[in-house]
Write a structure and sequence with these properties.
Elements (H helix, E strand, L loop, with lengths): L2 H12 L5 E4 L20 E3 L2 H4 L2 H7 L9
Antiparallel strand pairs: 1-2
Protein name: Aldehyde dehydrogenase domain-containing protein
């Protein structure tokens, strides 16, 4: 998963009512990680359980991202 895809996923999660960025959410700087791999700071997004279980949000909230993302 690329950095751009990780950040786009984060942005989609933050569009869910009540969600918030707990930490991270920024690309790494001055690294040597190939562009095909995501390079973001450890990131956590809070999504309320009541919103997570809604049909419109469930798929995006349960999308697995291989990287420092929760």
């Amino acid at each position: 998963v690329t950095t751009e895809r990780m950040l786009a996923h984060m942005k989609r999660l933050l569009e869910i009512p009540g969600s918030k960025l707990l930490f991270g959410g920024q690309p790494l700087e001055n690294h040597t990680i190939p562009e095909i791999y995501g390079a973001i700071k450890p990131t956590a997004v809070f999504v309320p359980l009541s919103e997570m279980l809604k049909k419109d949000h469930f798929e995006i909230v349960t999308t697995e991202i291989f990287g420092p993302f929760q």
